[in-house]
Amino acid sequence: MNAKKIKEIMTKDCATVTLKDNVYEVAVKMKQEDTGFIPVVDGKKLIGVITDRDLVIRGFAAKKEGSTAVAEVMSSNQITSATPETTVDEAAKLMASQQIRRLPVVENGELVGIVSIGDLAVRSNFEDEAGEALSEISEKDKVTV
Question: Which residue range(s) make up the domain with 93?
């Protein structure tokens, strides 16, 4: 039996922002899309990500205004990502080791989707992987709190 690939379960049409956007526009998009994670792209090339936590820590807590540029709050160094051919098990292990709940899926440098812990959890075959990944992420969260 072949291992299931994340391209089979990832969200393909994900919301994105560009460097031309500001933190207010990112927050509005997060609200509209009901997400706390938005990839930053240049064309289709993934250049960073912004989480709701980034907006709070690097934005509002640092007394930045809503017109602050995306580049000032986004994470861009060593973005953890996967390819469409990454197996679900490999993705779960990567997410657990990096303590992340969402994983951009990139092909030839271009964003093609996102896979989340929720994507793993709603597939009954992968509940163990998702549970293990979330458990490891949550355990590490407790240690750092």
Answer: 6-144
